[in-house]
């Protein structure tokens, strides 16, 4: 499934890297937002589709929210979904600012 097909849908994500946690392979990356995946999906990298959860200021284990965008990595095949509470919206610059802690290492853009 193309990553763009998730946009606009209500999605359940599992959080495996909660807000404040440290990246398992890169100790210099601290998660400034909750980060997880969509269960039972397959991304181009062979793993489950990853997702940033924005607009939630505490660590969570699971979340049901609206997919408002995707982060497309031009130099990597591991694109990400952007999930928010159903009543929330962010513009492209706000999204890029919130995920910059990790996306600064890639050539990333927001896709709607």
Mean pLDDT over the residues: 95
Shape: globular
The CATH homologous superfamily is called Inorganic pyrophosphatase
Beta-strand content: 25-35%
Task: Tell me the domain tally.
Answer: 1
What is the radius of gyration computed over CA atoms, rounded to a whole number of angstroms? Answer: 13 Å
Q: What would you call the structural class?
A: mainly beta
Strand order of the largest sheet: 1-2-3-5-4
CATH level-1 class: Alpha Beta
CATH architecture: Alpha-Beta Complex
In whole angstroms, the N-to-C terminal distance is: 16 Å
Number of strands: 6
Identify low-pLDDT runs: none
The DSSP helix count reads 1
Helix/strand order, N-terminal first: EEEEEHE
SSE topology:
Elements: E1 10-17, E2 34-38, E3 49-53, E4 62-73, E5 80-84, H1 92-103, E6 108-111
Parallel strand pairs: 3-5
Antiparallel strand pairs: 1-2, 1-4, 2-3, 4-5, 4-6
Structural commentary:
Helices cover about 10% and strands about 35% of the residues. The protein has about 110 residues and is mainly β. It has a single domain, classed as Alpha-Beta Complex (Inorganic Pyrophosphatase). Strands 1-2-3-5-4 form a five-stranded mixed β-barrel. The relative contact order is 0.24.
